[in-house]
Amino acid sequence: FDRHRETIKGLKGLKTVFVMIGPEIHSPFGKIYSYQDILKERTYSEGDLHHFIETGNKINSSDLLTIIYTSGTTGMPKGVRLTHANVMHNINCIPNIINLTSADRWLSILPSWHIFERTTEYVAFAQGCCLVYSSVKRFAQDLEQYRPTAVATVPRVWESLYSRVQAGVKKKGKLSFLIFQSLIKISTKFRRNKRFLLNRLPRFGDEPSVLILFLKIKALMICGLLAPWYFLAQKKLGVVRQRFGGQLRLAISGGGTLATFLEEWIDAVGIRIVNAYGMTECSPAIAGRGLNCRTFGTLGHPVAHTEVRIVSEEGEILSTGREGQIEVRGPQVTAGYYNNEEENAKSFTPDGYFKTGDLGKLTLSNELVITGRAKDIIVLASGENIDPTRIESTITMFPFIEDAILVGQDKKGLGALLVPNLEELREWTRRTFSNIRREGEDLLTDNRILEQIRKEINRLLKPKRGFKPYEKLHGITFLEKGFSHGEELTNTLKKKRYVIERKYRQKINDLLK
Fold it and tell me: Which pTM value belongs to this model?
């Protein structure tokens, strides 16, 4: 309340303010009530209960349940109209995907007004789970204190936990960190080859059987050689699992794309990751790699009664393995945006499919793979289209870079705005340069440091790793301030690209002039 005091004072039509948490008196306002005020001297009779039940009985599944506004990552927020039937579809089908029961303890972290968190809570209530409310600040401590069996959160939080674990191991010394990294590498390599042996990797077309046989023999040999070391690694990595409470049977990641290296790291540690895909307009679930789907690197099958197709820019329905725009149709899909006929006309096809704006492809087994977001695509002056998300994930693999956003729309080449981890950057500079004695923010503007970092990033952005020649960085710059929640970041901690680009327009122009 106090944070928004000045804004509230300027609202002319405001009659009453209800404060859920905070002090009871908020002068100079008049009609202000706390939650305790509302409950004062309240009694509940059988008539109240009867009225409550009767009201519920009068509701039709097609009635409007809520209007939730989109996060505004690509433009102005839009009011999504969701019915009882839309949300009930998710409540009915999600428990089967993750085998949720009343014995589960679910740790929640996202704001309750976000559709991902809201549906998570509905699902937990419907199954009779124990639901624990946490926050970004307390999440790591609450994992250890409440020892949940299930958590649902966004990629940004996993990135934070990954960095916290890495930093904690580093503090124990170089030898401990080297051993830890070796254990992760062994576990990752073993599990990659095991997935190949068990046909748990995405397939987009038929491959020569002789080649497959050769690769399986090779994978079997690698698994055989690594098996003793893998079981030792899993035993030692149990310490990390304890940091997540020790009883976590599944971790759901949604609300954004989880970087491949992070997904493999979580898997290597021994935590089952359920990668999910959804959006506000779909209440939110569209697809999820649940416990019945073991195909790593995908988002699993579409949820029950949901149709997903991939189409070209011209509207042609594409075959398996071809990348295009994702369209979805099902009982969870909104009927449209509130009071916004222009967006409704643009967002739906004549046969009732919703245009997600995301890019993806389908495997031979009908599992969904996200490859980017159409509206996030950067188009260079030369006409090349570039999806920034994979490049940004690669950049943030460096421990001294907390976050990154790729820029270059209508420019000759790409650049990146970087959010530094100053402590890690100081350590990296000390190891890399013997003649630089700069400290603090001076490190952020030293051209020798910037050029060396750019070169090291570009070494990772090579064709053999799947990158195009024009996807190298022409320039980088550090930001003095990180991205903040409510300004450059949405409630699910996704970057608002248009806000960031507008805020740093001059810096981008100077970088890529």
Answer: 0.77
